Amino acid sequence: MSIILLGIESSCDETAASVCRDGIILSNIIASQEIHSRYGGVVPELASRAHLQNILPVLDQAFLKAGISLADVNAVAFTQAPGLIGSLLVGAQVAKSLAFSKNIPLIAVHHMQAHVLANLIGGKENPGTTPDFPFLCLTVSGGHTQIVVCDSPSLMKVIGETTDDAAGEAFDKSAKILGLPYPGGPLIDHYAASGDPLRFKFPEPQIPGLNFSFSGLKTAILYFIQKEKALDPDFIENNLPDICASIQGRIISILLNKLKKAASQTGIKNICIAGGVAANKGLRKSFEENGKSLGWKTFIPKMEYCTDNAAMIAITGYYKYLDHSFSPLSTTVTAKAGW
Ligand code: KG4
Ligand code: ZN
């Protein structure tokens, strides 16, 4: 008998649903919320309202695309944490309602674990294209930056994380300093492609162990831009690709230096990246180049599985289903990241 999972993601500003059968993704529908760009960041109350508007059409599309009806679904997985509380509540309430009305198991999924397990998508269809256990994962998103040892789909340990801003925040806040709209990460990526990463030097923080820090970099960028603009009011316009390439280059070197340290400390050679910042073209390229020279087997999810999506929730739900790791309908959502 096939196992059909419905996955729902609503932790921040993407409303998403995905259907997976026996670990194979059949649909992956995402409604992004454009409204936040005019405010320079996600406005929680507006996000919750947009989730309410989007969730049912997104579910309908996910079923339609998959050629599956609700009656066929064996379990419903949803993002329980971390995230914006009002946003999480919408997805959780829909998941609980479906599980209750169909009398099928409810599966609570941790968003950051799901980002890691996005690396397993595609493995059923194309064996050998996804990492064997154990693997290391550098998870880089708008809210988190972590290095995780993954021994199995249910056994993961965070061995390094940011002590302040996340890598995605470093991109977004730098972009804001440059006057670029939110989310600025993809725009820095875009301009960096034609810039010189060695033109401007930004400091690499000296943080012990496997932890990260990005707040000093942000401050250094702010002071640098203020100083240069005092000399040339058009400094940003005249140098945008080089500024973006230099900022991006430094964020990438901070990330990859810690990842190399983690790989050497653990001796693990299967190495993955995940999360929204893993969509960054410069990071993808440097990661693969480093992996080649260090003898790693490198894995990166497809772009659509890097930024927030429900396929990663469905695949995590699938493995939790195999473990009978179900949640009661009384399960609550939480904004906190602990796992
Ligand atoms: O994983 P994600 O979609 O949502 C969270 O869980 O936070 O990550 C969103 C973050 C944002 O900070 C966004 O600017 C960043 O990922 N991002 C990128 C790129 N695409 C998304 N950063 C750099 N380059 C990109 N191409
Ligand atoms: Zn995310």
Q: Just name the CATH architecture of the largest domain.
A: 2-Layer Sandwich
**Biggest sheet strand line-up:** 3-2-1-4-5
Please identify which CATH superfamily of the largest domain we are dealing with: ATPase, nucleotide binding domain
Radius of gyration: 20 Å
Our count of domains comes out at: 2
Q: How many beta strands in the DSSP annotation? A: 10
Distance between the termini: 32 Å
> Which ions and ligands are bound to the chains?
5'-O-[(R)-(carboxyoxy)(hydroxy)phosphoryl]adenosine, zinc ion
What share of the residues lie within helices? 40-55%
How would you describe this structure to a colleague?
The chain has 339 residues and is of the alpha/beta class. It has 2 domains: 4-121 and 305-322, ATPase, nucleotide binding domain (Nucleotidyltransferase, domain 5, 2-Layer Sandwich), CATH 3.30.420.40; 135-300, Nucleotidyltransferase, domain 5 (2-Layer Sandwich), CATH 3.30.420. Helices cover 42% and strands 19% of the residues. It has helices spanning 44-66, 85-102, 111-117, 167-177, 185-192, 215-231, 235-266, 281-294, 311-322, and strands at residues 4-9, 14-21, 24-32, 75-81, 106-110, 135-140, 145-152, 155-161, 270-274, 297-299. Strands 3-2-1-4-5 form a 5-stranded mixed β-sheet, with helices on both faces. Helix 1 packs parallel to helix 2 (85-102) and helix 5 (185-192) crosses helix 7. The longest helix has 32 residues, at 235-266. The protein is globular, with a radius of gyration of 20 Å. It starts with a strand and ends in a 17-residue tail after the last helix. The model has no long low-confidence stretch (mean pLDDT 96). The structure holds 5'-O-[(R)-(carboxyoxy)(hydroxy)phosphoryl]adenosine and zinc ion. 5'-O-[(R)-(carboxyoxy)(hydroxy)phosphoryl]adenosine is lined by residues 12, 141-143, 168, 171-172, 183, 185-186, 189, 275-277, 279-280, 307-308. Residues 111, 115, 141, 275-276, 308 line the site of zinc ion.
